[in-house]
Amino acid sequence: MSGCRNKKHSREKENIRDLAQIKDSGELVVLTLYSSTSYFNYRGQEMGFQYELSGQFAKSLGVTLRVEVARNVDELIHKLLSGEGDIIAYNLPITKEWKDSLLYCGEKIITHQVIVQQGGGKGKMLKDVTELIGQEVYVKPGRYYDRLVNLNNELGGGIQIHEVTNDSITTEDLITQVALGKIPYTVADNDLAKLNKTYYPNLNIDLSISFDQRSSWAVRKDCPELAAFANKWHKENVTSPAYTASMKRYFESSKMMPHSPILSLKEGKISHFDHLFKEYAKEIGWDWRMLASLAYTESNFDTTAVSWAGAKGLMQLMPATARAMGVPQGKEQNPRESVKAAIKYIMATDRSFNMIANKHERINFILASYNAGLGHIYDAMALAEKYGKDKYVWKENVETFILLKSNEEYFTDPVCKNGYYRGIETFNFVRDVTSRYENYKKKIKT
Length: 446
Fold this sequence. Notes:
It contains 18 helices and 12 strands. The protein is of the alpha/beta class. It has 3 domains: 2-106 and 215-251, Periplasmic binding protein-like II (D-Maltodextrin-Binding Protein, domain 2); 113-211, Periplasmic binding protein-like II (D-Maltodextrin-Binding Protein, domain 2, 3-Layer(aba) Sandwich), CATH 3.40.190; 274-443, Lysozyme. The strands form 3 sheets. A 5-stranded mixed beta sheet has the order 4-1-5-12-6. The chain has a 5-stranded mixed beta sheet with strand order 9-8-10-7-11, with helices on both faces. Strand 2 (40-42) and strand 3 (45-47) form a beta hairpin. The longest helix is centred in the C-terminal third of the chain and has 21 residues, at 423-443.
């Protein structure tokens, strides 16, 4: 009997992966969730604030990083406890419930819920929770709704709470609606609100409505060395250039591209680069004005433009894409090299959509893929097919499902292979490029 117990005990000891074992294996397995603040795929590249921190952490350990994604917090914890990962890199709420099984580690993040409203817009800007009385607030079911109900009780009633139960609308969608003036107020965690403010600078997120909630990374109880290293690393890393750059990229840098008008209607010029668009558009059989519209939407014809995600130059290619398409190192901002590489990328993408017979329809899918990356468009097509829409038609078919890719119910669907995506960007991008092209056609002759 004791022999069996000893065998079991030694087997468990073998399975322990603390700091030394992780270093020996050469790989850190990080567990996280898909979201706009933790991990997602953008234009074929892994991104997200928690993802970047995980990469920096793995580098400091001298090991490679492997990311495993769970569907929800419960699964995240289950995967950690069953040894499917070494560390949870996600803002995991610090609760009594898990203190016996987990060691919380790394940076302790303080989050709280805030009212999202327009700053100095048409509606009344609230500066105190008592001013919520008589106001309409739109929220998703769950903790945001629960907090508002409790706050309403504390204030003696009067907040007009609209519970948005429509599955296809996310908290981020509600934030967008506030920014566009369609609804007056919503509620979100401050980190999510902060990230969305980089898309919509007119938002105000200063009014807190909840107690602080502490959250951090976590490891198993049997990994004290890993926890200690994470604590030390976070303390030292928080002032590093890499950490500061990541924080700025997701929570501070504006995601908006400034736009300017046509260069010269009289001379029939859209930009200083029309000669390049005319030369290279022939290679893909496009009207050069469509290529010009794509460039304008991407960079505002600014060859020095660098996006929040690191895309560079006139055609805003991600560094890995630029390399793959043959752009020489250091030439990302050369307009000819940028256009030439974009054409190669468009040709490759065109082949990926050769099942779409209608050439004009195919262009919509190419534009969408240029903006989002191929994987997310394939996911949206798979969802369209599943829900009885035409997966070979963009408008009002596949575009509907790219919007839904920011919704957990849809991006965790088995037909989706690429997880969370902020689909509103791509939805608007295709519409912007195609409508500007129509405008160019009216005003600029070939």
